[in-house]
Specification:
Strand order of the largest sheet: 1-2
Distance between the termini: 98 Å
Number of strands: 2
Order of helices and strands: HEEHHHHHHHHHHHHHHHHHH
Number of helices: 19
Strand content: under 5%
Largest sheet: 2 strands, antiparallel
CATH class of the domain at 305-388: Mainly Alpha
CATH architecture of the domain at 305-388: Alpha Horseshoe
Length: 407
């Protein structure tokens, strides 16, 4: 605007100077419908410039209301962006109630209100305010009607966290109907299927999990290993030896080499009276992939020849002399073979390397049967301290004669 004023002033001054200084200013005559307009050339230039200036001014006046509305909207959105940043910082600092208020007070003015409502739902969830959380999630879903994926994933996550498995499944199925199952949503669906015990659907998901970019093969392997381990546990608890064998035969070759799957299968075999087969599968696993749970279970198996199993375990021990779980397993096998002194040595060595409540309890039971009650009691106290994380402090009791007055 200033430039236009300066231009008009310059042209006006130029026209005046031209009229004064130039000997011949030129002549312009314009005839239109019986009207004749006569003027000099500098005056014509001045009129043209004034006309252009008037047109520019009219355009600016016409644009002014729209520009004012845009400026007010930008100020509101800037305030909303500031509230979003401050609210997220408050949430990170643990001030969840303040964060919820900050995030929502200017949410309607934000460019993406759903972001504010989702963050507010997270703050309400951290406070345990389920009703408010669901209300914010509802507003977020309305605000992001064209892109419901992030909202539905958040709904599923929060319901899954709160143990509302069916509600989480409903949100994920809504995403599936929309054809918007992202890698994160697929992983959540697999988790929901596992928690519901829907093993058939989880197995159907495997091809999609493996073909989806963003999900690593290691993550899919872990999901499927957990699936077969869960199926083996269910077959052990609710089925029979036939059901256990059927699940094992159905498992992939890779899954049958995973420690969790093998341990679950071995537990089932031991429960159904086949400890020898259980010992064999555990030994095959440990020869190729060392695993603590498998080692401990190998020592807990009953039946069979304990001396033969002890020989195998002590063979492993030659390469793992300071392996506490293996020492406990050797001790259990010594107890089964009635080698009590050797069992005691193994247990004491394991407890010295890595104190564990279970090891302390086992050693205490052995010492009690060997007539060392005081030492057994001390070990039990140490085991309780390991579980609770501290030793109780009891003030010394004062000895007094019966009937003596208290002081």
């Amino acid at each position: 605007m200033k430039r236009l004023v300066f231009l008009v002033a310059a042209v006006a001054i130029g026209a005046v100077l031209a009229n004064k200084l130039l000997a011949e200013n030129g002549y312009v005559a314009i005839s239109f419908r019986g009207y004749l307009v006569e003027m000099s050339v500098p005056m014509l230039v001045l009129c043209v410039v004034l006309a252009l200036a008037g047109l520019e001014a009219a355009q600016r006046i016409a644009r002014w209301p729209r520009e004012q509305r845009a400026a007010r909207l930008e100020r509101r959105r800037a305030r909303a962006r500031e509230d979003l940043s401050r609210g997220l910082l408050e949430m990170s600092a643990g001030r969840w109630s303040e964060s919820e208020l900050t995030l929502t007070r200017a949410a309607r003015d934000a460019a993406l209100p759903a972001v504010h409502y989702l963050a507010a739902a997270r703050a309400a969830d951290l406070q345990g305010a389920i009703e408010r959380r669901d209300a914010w999630l509802g507003l977020a879903r309305e605000a992001a009607a064209d892109e419901p994926g992030p909202v539905l994933i958040t709904v599923a996550e929060m319901n899954l966290k709160g143990g509302r498995i069916d509600a989480a499944l409903e949100a994920l199925e809504a995403l599936e109907e929309l054809g918007d199952l992202s890698p994160r949503a697929l992983l959540l669906l697999a988790r929901v299927c596992r928690q519901r015990g829907d093993f058939a659907r989880l197995r159907e998901l495997e091809p999609r999990l493996r073909s989806t970019r963003g999900i690593t093969p290691a993550a899919v392997d872990e999901i499927m290993d957990n699936l077969y381990a869960d199926m083996l546990r269910v077959a052990t608890e609710k089925g029979g030896q036939g059901a256990l064998a059927a699940v094992w035969d159905e498992a992939t070759r890779a899954a049958r080499r995973r420690p969790g799957v093998v341990v679950a299968y071995a537990r089932g075999l031991a429960r159904f009276g086949d400890p020898e087969r259980a010992a064999t599968v555990l030994r095959e696993l440990l020869d190729s992939d060392w695993n603590e749970a498998a080692v401990l279970l190998y020592g807990e198996l009953g039946g069979g020849d304990p001396l033969e199993r002890l020989r195998i375990a002590e063979g492993w021990l030659r390469g793992r002399r300071e392996d506490p779980p293996l020492l406990v397993t050797c001790a259990r096998l010594c107890l089964n073979a009635e080698l009590y002194g050797k069992a005691r040595s193994y247990l004491e060595m394991s407890q010295a390397l890595r104190p564990r409540a279970e090891t302390a309890q086992l050693l205490a039971q052995l010492l009690e049967q060997l007539g060392e009650g005081d030492r057994a009691m001390a070990l039990l106290k140490d085991g309780i301290a390991l579980v609770t994380g501290r030793k109780p402090v009891l003030p010394p009791l004062k000895q007094r004669r019966f009937g003596a007055p208290r002081r």
